[in-house]
Write a structure and sequence with these properties.
Blueprint: E1 3-8, H1 16-26, E2 30-35, H2 45-52, H3 82-89, E3 92-98, H4 100-107, H5 114-121, E4 126-130, H6 134-138, H7 140-151, E5 155-156, E6 160-163, E7 170-174, H8 178-186, E8 200-206, E9 210-211, E10 217-218, H9 225-236, E11 240-246, E12 257-261, H10 264-275, E13 280-283, E14 290-292, E15 312-314, H11 318-324, E16 331-338, H12 343-354, E17 358-363, E18 375-382, E19 385-393, H13 394-411
Parallel strand pairs: 1-2, 1-3, 3-4, 4-5, 8-11, 8-13, 11-12, 13-16, 16-17
Antiparallel strand pairs: 6-7, 9-10, 14-15, 17-18, 18-19
Helix pairs in contact: 1-2, 1-8, 3-5, 4-7, 9-13
The protein binds cytidine-5'-triphosphate.
């Protein structure tokens, strides 16, 4: 585990720095954050402070209430100069997102705010993850500044191509995926503890769509956010992650393997194929319980109809079927969206009827959680009882679910760490 000093500068991608903090912390690192004043227009210091459990510094004249140490480190007796003490204690200084302006300042040794002062004083390795408009990225000035920085052994995590902040603009300049940034950091600093190294995790995410004709389907409101957060959390623990994504329109992580599916039958086929080799199945997808018996090959016409009847037939309960086929050491976790006061009892019933090791229940009667929301609150039901996990962002919930899986593995009599 390492002490990572994260500098956040003023670009729209500043919000992604929150995910980088979560991921780095989930991987066991400790993090302190300094921000430029402009970055606070995008994300407030309170968010970083809440996640890291440490004060966030912006002003170079400001006293550091934590006296320049990282969470868990003993504070010195004296009141040190913040930027000097922070970089002295850091194993790595990562600036993400790094704007063209900050890159230019770093290239030319300017020190006009806390972040650039800290960079100039840093003897630890520096990692820059630029993010900006593609024209700014491609400009000769930015590219020659980056060349200067590379010569000084500063690591640059190149941005990705994709849609940019300004409407209808597309190009190179999007902040690299946070897992890619963390990977670059971990190539430099002592890698975090990777307790799930060698463990293969299969996750289903999103919601299936059952066609009733060539253009219409019966679907559900699952966004795939919970499944994708589970993938990030498993990745942070060092697992090899495959996600079966049913109609998920969310950014992809280059370190995760994705299998895209549309229908329950396709999801079943993909799950059967990949389950055989996995150690843990996290079945977060909302799989249709029914599918149209005979979907129309063309488009159903309205003309001449007073009503339309579509006959639906039951699909396979994929989770229950895979639970029947499990080999020793494989763990299966189901997810149940339940409504109202009986949620936990219904979850406990599913634990037994599907033959799984845990069921993560969320009460969909609360409009503030679940489905497309960024946060969630769940109850993890196992044979030993249940654990309530209070409302938090989905990555934090995902990490708690994985800790519950760890507790299950340590109970297992079967060799759950079978790495065959
Ligand atoms: N599931 C599955 N295959 C299905 C339906 C559900 O594998 N055809 C899985 C889901 O991915 C989830 C768990 O079963 O992990 C619970 O899903 P849920 O829809 O809550 O359970 P059902 O058994 O379909 O019960 P309900 O009548 O409440 O919908």
């Amino acid at each position: 585990m390492a002490r990572i000093l994260l500098g956040v500068t003023g670009g729209i991608a500043a919000y992604k720095a929150l995910d980088l903090v979560r991921l780095a912390m989930a991987a066991g690192h400790s993090v302190r954050v300094i921000q430029t004043e402009d970055s606070q227009r995008f994300v407030g210091g309170a968010s970083f402070a809440a996640l890291t459990g440490a004060p966030v510094l912006v002003d170079q004249w400001e006293r550091d209430p934590a006296r320049g140490v990282f969470p868990g480190q003993p504070a010195p007796e004296h009141d040190p100069i913040s930027h000097l003490e922070l970089v002295r204690n850091a194993d790595c200084f990562v600036i993400a997102p790094a704007t063209a302006n900050t890159i230019a300042k770093l290239a030319h040794g300017l020190a006009d705010n806390l972040l650039t002062n800290a960079a100039l004083a840093a003897s630890c390795p520096i990692v820059l993850a630029p993010a900006m408009n593609h024209q700014m990225w491609e400009s000769e000035a930015t590219q020659s500044n980056l060349a200067l920085l590379r010569k000084r052994s500063i690591t640059i995590v190149d941005p990705e191509s994709g849609s940019l902040a300004s409407l209808n603009e597309w190009g190179n300049g999007r902040l690299a995926a946070v897992s890619t940034i963390l990977q670059a950091i971990e190539q430099i600093v002592p890698a975090a503890d990777r307790p799930w190294d060698g463990r293969r995790v299969l996750i289903t995410a999103g919601g299936t769509r059952e066609p009733i004709d060539a253009v219409r389907f019966v679907g559900n409101r699952s966004s795939g956010r919970m499944g994708f957060a589970l993938a990030q959390a498993a990745l942070a623990r060092g697992a090899e992650v495959t996600v079966i994504a049913a109609n998920v329109d969310l950014p992809r992580d280059p370190l995760v393997k994705y299998v895209d599916v549309e229908t329950a039958a396709q999801l079943e086929a993909a799950a059967r194929e990949h389950f055989v080799n996995c150690h843990l199945l996290l079945m977060a997808a909302a799989v249709a319980d029914f599918t149209a018996r005979s979907p129309e090959a063309g488009k159903l016409k309205k003309q001449g109809r007073e009503q339309l009847e579509v006959t639906l037939t039951a699909t396979t309960d994929v989770l229950a079927a895979l639970a029947q086929e499990r080999r020793p050491g494989q763990l299966l976790v189901g997810f149940a969206a339940e409504h109202g006061a009986q949620s936990v009892a219904l979850g406990a019933k599913k634990l037994a009827s599907k033959g799984v090791d845990a069921v993560v229940v969320n009460d969909v009667s609360d409009p503030e959680i679940g489905f497309s929301s960024e946060s969630n609150a769940v109850t993890i039901v196992t044979a030993d009882g249940h654990q309530e996990v209070e409302k938090a962002d989905k990555l934090t919930i995902a990490d708690t679910i994985l800790s519950a899986v760890d507790a299950l593995s340590s109970h297992e009599t079967a060799p759950s760490r079978d790495r065959s």
